[in-house]
Automatic annotation (TrEMBL):
Matching PANTHER family: FORMATE DEHYDROGENASE 1 (PTHR42938), HYDROXYPYRUVATE REDUCTASE (PTHR42938:SF47)
Record's protein name: D-3-phosphoglycerate dehydrogenase
Top EC category: oxidoreductase
E.C. designation(s): 1.1.1.399, 1.1.1.95
Family classification: Belongs to the D-isomer specific 2-hydroxyacid dehydrogenase family.
The entry's keywords: NAD, Oxidoreductase
Known function: Catalyzes the reversible oxidation of 3-phospho-D-glycerate to 3-phosphonooxypyruvate, the first step of the phosphorylated L-serine biosynthesis pathway. Also catalyzes the reversible oxidation of 2-hydroxyglutarate to 2-oxoglutarate.
Pfam families listed in its UniProt record: 2-Hacid_dh, 2-Hacid_dh_C
Record bears the keyword Oxidoreductase: yes
Pathway(s): Amino-acid biosynthesis; L-serine biosynthesis; L-serine from 3-phospho-D-glycerate: step 1/3
Transmembrane segments: none
């Protein structure tokens, strides 16, 4: 039996993927083999030695201690693109909210309650205070052209906006998916200088944290509207509040709430709703469950953020999965150890990702615990899994 610990509400459609004869899952479970998580922070968690994998049903993995996981041989997965459409739709909604004063207009309209026959007349009289510009013809800067950024950029082109896209690490697949009408901004400065609206779609990393700050805001157009559906810490809270007070930033729409935002007239705050659609929750949970099942049962890795993708059809009854450092002589030492025990290696594959690598070996014959112990003693080998 495999034990799956769930740390957030995970869509039942994903959980149903786990065969009840082989898996138990619960929000409290002893010795988990794997964790299924959304946004819950795992930074302070103690990991049981039984833990082999963590699947983030979503995109951002800043709630997971990646270095600690890599050093413990825990594979961390996410579900690229599975919730991107949900975020795109809310960003498009936010572009409109930031322009057309929809939220204050709705609040004001509620105040007409009790005016009876005069409501329509009062509405016509009062509406001029809620005039706001159209999106068509305006310039939108999209920072980060991954699963979400591309969808937002392409949708904004269809709304008649002039779109500047910035992503120095754009993947080939993403570049293929981007509308040819999106202008290629070569620097962030180009985005800041030109944009009437800016939307951020990058992960929170040491490079991106605090990227929206007093200095960067100074280079933006006066009265720029900023959307942040990526992570709260990409924007320096004190700096955005000061810029809003000075009207340098007209509106800040964020999915990440802070106490100071709640009553600020320039902020529209949402309670991290970007991915909260049934469709996204299902997509993410199904993808995360599939990734865990294929890893726990076959040692195949797809969509890991700390280890390479390695998938090989099973060709023998016994498989070894070896997580090791990306250094010379690992493969020769692994092969020599397995061969010394008389096990023929029928098929083997190896891939690396930055400092780490993963090797899968389909071997003939039974593999005894001794081989595992011997392999784990080799310097550079972090963890060995056996699949039968
Ligand atoms: N509000 C919500 O509910 C959600 C928020 N998110 C957040 O949005 C982020 C992006 O999500 P996806 O588009 O699905 O991820 P993704 O991994 O497909 O795209 C991220 C893009 O950012 C680019 N990038 C990285 N560093 C950059 C930098 N310094 N400058 C410019 N571009 C850079 C990458 O090259 C990549 O193309 C996630 O990391 C997560 O933090 C994601 C889903 C839901
Ligand atoms: O996928 C992401 O990065 C998100 O921020 C979505 O978070 P959630 O799964 O809705 O808690």
């Amino acid at each position: 039996m495999y034990n799956i610990l769930t740390l957030n509400k995970i869509s039942p459609i994903g959980l149903e993927k786990f065969d009840k004869n082989k898996y138990s899952y619960a929000s409290e479970i002893e010795n988990p083999d794997a964790v299924l998580v959304r946004s819950a922070s795992m930074h302070e968690m103690e990991f049981s030695p039984s833990l082999k994998a963590i699947a983030r049903a979503g995109a951002g993995v800043n709630n997971i201690p990646l270095d600690k996981c890599s050093e413990a041989g825990i594979v961390v997965f996410n579900t690229p693109g599975a919730n991107a459409n949900a975020v795109k739709e809310l960003v498009i909604c936010s572009l409109l909210l930031s322009s057309r004063k929809i939220v204050p207009a709705i609040e004001w309209a509620k105040g007409l309650k009790g005016e009876g026959e005069n409501v329509a007349k009062l509405a016509e009289k009062g509406k001029s205070q809620f005039v706001g510009p159209e999106l068509k013809g305006k310039k939108l800067g999209v920072i980060g052209l991954g699963a979400i950024g591309i969808l937002v950029a392409n949708a904004a082109i269809h709304l008649g906006m002039e779109v500047y896209g910035y992503d120095p690490y754009i993947s080939v697949d993403a570049a293929w998916g981007l509308s040819r009408s999106v202008k290629h901004a070569k620097t962030l400065g180009e985005v800041y200088e030109n944009s009437d609206y800016i939307t951020i779609h990058v992960p929170s990393t040491p490079e991106t944290k605090g990227m929206i700050n007093s200095e960067s805001i100074q280079t933006m157009k006066h009265g720029v509207r900023i959307m942040n559906f990526a992570r709260g810490d990409l924007v320096v809270k004190e700096d955005i509040l000061a810029a809003l007070d000075e009207k340098a930033v007209k509106v800040y729409i964020t999915d990440f709430l802070e106490d100071e935002f709640l009553d600020h007239p320039g902020v529209i705050g949402l309670p991290h709703l970007g991915a909260s659609t049934p469709e996204s929750e299902d997509n993410c949970a199904v993808m995360a469950a599939d990734e865990l099942i294929d890893f726990l049962e076959n040692g195949n890795i797809t969509n890991s953020v700390n280890l390479p993708s390695v998938s090989m059809p099973r060709t023998t009854d016994t498989r070894l999965g070896v997580i090791h450092r990306n250094v010379p002589t690992m493969l020769t030492q692994i092969a020599a150890t397995v061969s010394a025990h008389g096990n023929n290696i029928e098929n083997m594959t190896n891939k690396s990702k930055k400092d780490y690598a993963y090797t899968v070996l389909d071997v003939v014959g039974d593999v005894d615990k001794e081989i595992i112990a011997e392999l784990e003693k080799i310097e550079g080998i972090i963890r060995v899994f056996i699949y039968k």
